Amino acid sequence: MLLAKIVGTVVATRKDPRLVSNKLLVVRAIDPRGKAEGNYLVAVDTVDAGVGETVLVVSGSSARMASGLKDCPVDAAIVGIVDAVEMSE
């Protein structure tokens, strides 16, 4: 599971029929303090998130277990919107 920030959207007028009506968002992994790290990733939105929000992203077979994505050709899915991150060091 990744902590990520939504940085954009993807519009695909032609795509696999199983992805029709699914929103595709561009996310970038962040550390717990909010600093960007890693590459960009396109993820299917299952929680109605929006640009600028911090989210939880799952990938691989876990993404296909997300709500409504069974048997869909996805490798990343947004499964939660983060309200706050608390750390003790």
Descriptive notes:
This protein is mainly beta. It has one domain: OB fold (Dihydrolipoamide Acetyltransferase, E2P) (Beta Barrel), CATH 2.40.50.220. It has 1 helix and 5 strands; from the N terminus they run ββββαβ. The protein has one helix spanning 61-64, and strands at 2-10, 23-30, 36-45, 54-59, 76-81. The chain has a 5-stranded mixed β-barrel. It starts with a strand and ends in an 8-residue tail after the last strand.
Keywords for this entry:
single chain; 89 residues; mainly beta; OB fold (Dihydrolipoamide Acetyltransferase, E2P); five-stranded mixed β-barrel; 5 strands
**Domains counted in the coordinates: how many?**
1
Could you say which overall geometry the principal axes of the C-alpha atoms support?
globular
CATH architecture: Beta Barrel
The CATH superfamily appears as EutN/Ccml
Indicate the radius of gyration in whole angstroms. 13 Å
Assembly level:
single chain
Strand order of the largest sheet: 1-2-3-5-4
Number of strands: 5
pLDDT < 50 runs, ≥5 residues: none
- In this structure, how is the largest beta sheet organized? 5 strands, mixed, barrel
Along the chain, the helix and strand elements come as EEEEHE
**Portion in beta strands:** 35-45%
Number of helices: 1
CATH top level assignment: Mainly Beta
Portion of residues in helices? under 10%
**Structural class of the helix and strand makeup?**
mainly beta
Distance between the termini: 21 Å
Annotated CATH topology:
OB fold (Dihydrolipoamide Acetyltransferase, E2P)
Overall residue-averaged pLDDT value: 92
